[in-house]
Amino acid sequence: MDKSEAKKRTRPTERDQAFGRVLKLRSEIARLRSAYHVENAPGVTDDVYDSLTRELKILLEKYPEFTDENAPENRVAGKPLDKFVKVKHQTRMLSLNDVFNEEELFDWEKRIKKLLQGGEVSYFCEVKFDGLAVSLIYENGQFVRGATRGDGFVGENITQNLKTINSIPLSLTRRGVGRSGSESLQARRGEVNGVVPAFLEIRGEALVSKKTLIKLNIENEKKGDQFFANTRNVAAGSLRQLDPQLVAERKLDFVAYDLIEANSLQTLLNHSEKHAYLKNIGFKVEKLEAKCKNLSEVIAFIKKFEKIRPDFPYGTDGIVISVDNLKMQETLGVVGKAPRFMVAFKYPAEKATTILKEILVNVGRTGVLTPLAVFEPTLVAGSLVSKATLHNMDQIDRLDLKIGDTVVIEKAGDVIPKVVEVLIRMRTGKEKKFKMPEKCPTCGGNVEKLKISSGFLQPSARTFPVQKSSVSPRSVAFYCSNPKCPAKDERYLEHFVSVFEIYELGPKILRRFKDEGLITDAADIFTLTKEDIAPLERFGEKSAENIVEEIKNKKKISFSRFIWALGILHVGEETARDLAQHFGTLEKLISAVNHNQTEIDSIENIGPAVLKSVDNFFQDKNNLNFIKKLQENGVVIEKKEKRKKGKFTGLTFVLTGTLSGMSREIAKEKIMSLGGKVSGSVSKHTSCIVAGVEPGSKLKTAEKLGVKVLNEKEFLNMLG
Ligand code: IVH
């Protein structure tokens, strides 16, 4: 056997690696299941758990020989807590099978129709809440016992805690003839007004609103406690409290969704009637529900709710779809721990797990090296994600990220994907630490380290342009020290076209135009003609025409965006807006610099470091020539900055930290739509600072200056 053959034999095969991964996934899934069911303290969200389970399922499909009937994924979940008294459920509390898209929904319909042997099936749709499932027992109309789901067979008796929830009635009475169907229903039951069956079991979800989640997290932040990741964690965590007094403070709510009664099938015909009945006897039932004649109507409901979902007051994770007819439900029955007659439609996950394959390093327009995570492509919020910026070395250290790690990535709606967590327990010991390169990956120039304090350069550091927004307070920036590094030019071009909103010119096209000699700087973009572009390979008449047309349409720009596009050190979008407000025109700005009139105190929200870099920029002849060239090539600065009038007119806001209920962009838009200004830095002119989670140094400055500080809730109230 030669050496290379020996090496091949000792190297693990793909199958060996898969087996190792299966074992890792199994143990982590088992741990998470126990955390969820036994301790009621899920360490991760459902998305993360689902993602790991999906990976395991795919691996087992590929390698069926690794299947193990006694493995945790094939066992019923854990035991209830010892602290609460255990309760055996009279009827098992089931869970639901998930469907993730329309195709799976149609497959489900095909399966059930086959079992029902013909006939039309109508459905019932309702919201799937992100809380904790509980069972409530009523004897002779009195609430006698409430329990958690536990493992489905045995739960925990949490009656005292549930009694603190106002929406759980302590005694039930029929309210006479209510809405839809209750009159005939009552007749069918032979009930007299005011009487409910001797035994009733109600199932539903204990939950908190998103507003309560925000409020609790703000309080937790003040106390230095950990944040609740979602509404379910609050509900679960609260109901685990042994002291009902503490539970009462949490403002829990209860929404009923099912009714279990020994002889229910003789009296109620449809699942929708159950809901009507629940409402009638005093339970809160979600208004957003629909009887659907077919799956097209079900899909319409799913789409309708998807639009409302971000603003829905409660956390949700999908839609529950049931076969409406209860006789049909009985025929279909239960397989394993889930009914055949009900499924949960899950909206695309906003979090998923994947493996970090490598970390690439990009050079930005200011020369800063930015690490970029590259992972196994994975589906998050409906799109395939394979890369995410890691911003800087601090971020890598904070996450304790290593190459080969299993990571959690998050992408909510349109938000850019980010790595939020490392699943340390998934490590095998083969993960590698990442080091920033010593040479620039683009030009081979020396990489230097720069200490950044509060977003500004240390005085001793060389005045190499470092963009404030790319580094966090007191972090270390790595940058390429070669002033001629081509990556900087490229990134500047990308920044320029993005501020001018010339979407046809992506990074690849810009690089191509530069390589072909069509442009030497950003101003040349505005002289490009169809004849320049069309002859290039892979372009053609039509795309050349589109590009030229788009550039022509984007020649007009507001003053603030023009300033932003110049790429002045420390001048991002918000600071550019402040400068534009103060000076009004480019001429005035340049003349103020020439006459040394850019005085610190006179300019709202602008600090010394920004002013210094603005001065430097406009004193540089090359920059003035570049501006002249832009104007000669047809770029026009629009005269007046449009500002809406509203209740925030005259107020300047500064945002710091993360808001849990809305993105920063939306918050800015809302402020501006009410006539307010948003600034990037705090000064004595700031009216108030909105402090989200993990606020930056701006909060300290605001407190020093006596600027009013708003928390997220106060800010939301102010928005109205
Ligand atoms: S029906 C067979 N309706 O989802 C169990 N469940 O995955 C049927 N859930 O444990 C329950 N909202 O905690 C149903 N409107 C709703 C629901 C709902 C949330 C939860 C419940 C259950 C889990 C099943």
From TrEMBL:
<keyword id="KW-0862">Zinc</keyword>
<comment type="similarity">
    <text>Belongs to the NAD-dependent DNA ligase family. LigA subfamily.</text>
</comment>
<dbReference type="GO" id="GO:0006281">
    <property type="term" value="P:DNA repair"/>
</dbReference>
<dbReference type="GO" id="GO:0006260">
    <property type="term" value="P:DNA replication"/>
</dbReference>
<keyword id="KW-0234">DNA repair</keyword>
<dbReference type="GO" id="GO:0003911">
    <property type="term" value="F:DNA ligase (NAD+) activity"/>
</dbReference>
<dbReference type="InterPro" id="IPR041663">
    <property type="entry name" value="DisA/LigA_HHH"/>
</dbReference>
<keyword id="KW-0227">DNA damage</keyword>
<dbReference type="InterPro" id="IPR036420">
    <property type="entry name" value="BRCT_dom_sf"/>
</dbReference>
<dbReference type="InterPro" id="IPR013839">
    <property type="entry name" value="DNAligase_adenylation"/>
</dbReference>
<keyword id="KW-0520">NAD</keyword>
<dbReference type="InterPro" id="IPR010994">
    <property type="entry name" value="RuvA_2-like"/>
</dbReference>
<keyword id="KW-0460">Magnesium</keyword>
<feature type="binding site">
    <location>
        <position position="149"/>
    </location>
    <ligand>
        <name>NAD(+)</name>
    </ligand>
</feature>
<dbReference type="InterPro" id="IPR012340">
    <property type="entry name" value="NA-bd_OB-fold"/>
</dbReference>
<dbReference type="Pfam" id="PF01653">
    <property type="entry name" value="DNA_ligase_aden"/>
</dbReference>
<dbReference type="InterPro" id="IPR001679">
    <property type="entry name" value="DNA_ligase"/>
</dbReference>
<dbReference type="Pfam" id="PF03120">
    <property type="entry name" value="OB_DNA_ligase"/>
</dbReference>
<feature type="binding site">
    <location>
        <position position="205"/>
    </location>
    <ligand>
        <name>NAD(+)</name>
    </ligand>
</feature>
<dbReference type="GO" id="GO:0005829">
    <property type="term" value="C:cytosol"/>
</dbReference>
<feature type="binding site">
    <location>
        <position position="346"/>
    </location>
    <ligand>
        <name>NAD(+)</name>
    </ligand>
</feature>
<dbReference type="InterPro" id="IPR013840">
    <property type="entry name" value="DNAligase_N"/>
</dbReference>
<protein>
    <recommendedName>
        <fullName>DNA ligase</fullName>
        <ecNumber>6.5.1.2</ecNumber>
    </recommendedName>
</protein>
<feature type="domain" description="BRCT">
    <location>
        <begin position="643"/>
        <end position="720"/>
    </location>
</feature>
<feature type="binding site">
    <location>
        <position position="480"/>
    </location>
    <ligand>
        <name>Zn(2+)</name>
    </ligand>
</feature>
<comment type="function">
    <text>DNA ligase that catalyzes the formation of phosphodiester linkages between 5'-phosphoryl and 3'-hydroxyl groups in double-stranded DNA using NAD as a coenzyme and as the energy source for the reaction. It is essential for DNA replication and repair of damaged DNA.</text>
</comment>
<feature type="binding site">
    <location>
        <position position="443"/>
    </location>
    <ligand>
        <name>Zn(2+)</name>
    </ligand>
</feature>
<feature type="binding site">
    <location>
        <position position="485"/>
    </location>
    <ligand>
        <name>Zn(2+)</name>
    </ligand>
</feature>
<dbReference type="InterPro" id="IPR018239">
    <property type="entry name" value="DNA_ligase_AS"/>
</dbReference>
<feature type="active site" description="N6-AMP-lysine intermediate">
    <location>
        <position position="128"/>
    </location>
</feature>
<dbReference type="Pfam" id="PF00533">
    <property type="entry name" value="BRCT"/>
</dbReference>
<keyword id="KW-0479">Metal-binding</keyword>
<keyword id="KW-0436">Ligase</keyword>
<feature type="binding site">
    <location>
        <position position="440"/>
    </location>
    <ligand>
        <name>Zn(2+)</name>
    </ligand>
</feature>
<dbReference type="InterPro" id="IPR001357">
    <property type="entry name" value="BRCT_dom"/>
</dbReference>
<feature type="binding site">
    <location>
        <position position="126"/>
    </location>
    <ligand>
        <name>NAD(+)</name>
    </ligand>
</feature>
<dbReference type="GO" id="GO:0046872">
    <property type="term" value="F:metal ion binding"/>
</dbReference>
<dbReference type="Pfam" id="PF14520">
    <property type="entry name" value="HHH_5"/>
</dbReference>
<dbReference type="Pfam" id="PF12826">
    <property type="entry name" value="HHH_2"/>
</dbReference>
<keyword id="KW-0235">DNA replication</keyword>
<dbReference type="InterPro" id="IPR004150">
    <property type="entry name" value="NAD_DNA_ligase_OB"/>
</dbReference>
<keyword id="KW-0464">Manganese</keyword>
